[in-house]
Amino acid sequence: MRLTILGGGGFRVALVYQALLGDRGTGRITSVALFDTDRTRLTSIAAVLGQQAAGVADAPVVTETTDLDEALRGADFVFSAIRVGGLEGRTVDERVALDLGVLGQETVGAGGIAYGLRTVPVAVGIAQRIAAVAPEAWVINFTNPAGMVTEAMIPYLGDRVIGICDSPSGLGRRAALALGVDPATAFYDYAGLNHLGWLRGLRSGGVDRLPALLESSEALSSFEEGRLFGADWLRSLGAIPNEYLHYYYFARETLAAVQAVQQTRGKFLLEQQSAFYAETTRHPERALELWQKTRAERESTYMVESREVADAGERDERDMAAGGYEQVALSLMRAIAHNERASLILNVRNRGVLHHLDDDAVVEIPCTVDANGALPVTVSQLTDHQAGLICSVKAVERSTIEAAVTGSRSAALRAFAWHPLVDSVTAAGKLLESYAQQLPDLTRFRA
Ligand code: G6P
Ligand code: MN
């Protein structure tokens, strides 16, 4: 089996490779093709993978290329994990929004729209090349904003492209453990869009255990989302939101906290990652050690402002070790390759499951996966509150895709203006103009 990783010079590729090394079953991945537009990054990550594979018998063979078609040829699976505009682009996404008084974040609010406008045209180009060169391949999309990007690729790849994120399974696992339930045996009544969903039930042994979790202050304070949102609000809500909803429910406080720090997350990562790639280039023999140190710093500072706002304390050691990102991808790939039925929360077309959304809207929802792909399963319907927010953000995503694909400035303006975290059309116009001036990929949207 051959796996192609687009964005193969990316930092988290080593997590995926680590997971592959642990897979000893038949039909496992035996060859990994790394594609990246940046040769230096490819070389650094290849050095990390080489050191990870040391002493492991039959480790998947790794090749590197900067030629997309060459990377895709013969692929059984394609992971797409690219960052258009790099971390430099991310810092502009964040900074422009913050300077105009709205949330600047990688995937949520104005920052996510700018990132989407940049990424969608590239993702569509990739989807077209996959359809031409590797039409049988299954495509697993990690590229953020993951829901929007997956929806943009579907016209070219159909349901062979599946979007993934580790946050819903992470939430499910943490909630199950807080209840003393084995995470693998529970059913998660989770629904929403990527980075905008809620756990509305957690069934174990045929019983919904979520009400018991919501009742117990002790259990709630034992895990990340319980501490972020607080028992009082969780009980009012009757559900546990994805951690990214902290930016919506505590919009003022998180905005102020993010504005108060000199460095945005993107800026921090830009400096951290640049140092990692530079040092690895100088000392390739220390690649793995440098990677591990960098990873630990990156994980422990994740969503640090939200945790400060909520007074939630340090990140749980178990969360950092649990292996979300790569495990979701590996489970999905295994279920397809071995025709082993699995239940995973994925970004797929709604196909009638959530009544408030049309069939083709990409939603994040539990699916049954086997060799035929991923099919959404029945979950509870959305409440009015959930549906209101989801439908608003779906309209934003679709306007962003329309703007990215057609170049329509009015579609781009609508996307910013309709976002629940952008509070005025004037601000939306300024955001669009400012992004168009500062991001080379978006100059076509200038007034
Ligand atoms: C979570 C999200 C991802 C995001 C990642 C890293 O896993 O689900 O979508 O890419 O965090 O965030 P960071 O701020 O560290 O780049
Ligand atoms: Mn995610």
UniProtKB/TrEMBL annotation:
Chain positions recorded as substrate binding sites: R90, N144, R286
Cofactor note: Binds 1 NAD(+) per subunit.
Annotated keywords: Cobalt, Glycosidase, Hydrolase, Iron, Manganese, Metal-binding, NAD, Nickel
Residues annotated as domain Glycosyl hydrolase family 4 C-terminal: 190-422
Native species: Kribbella capetownensis
Family: Belongs to the glycosyl hydrolase 4 family.
Stated name of the protein: 6-phospho-beta-glucosidase
Site feature location: Increases basicity of active site Tyr: E106
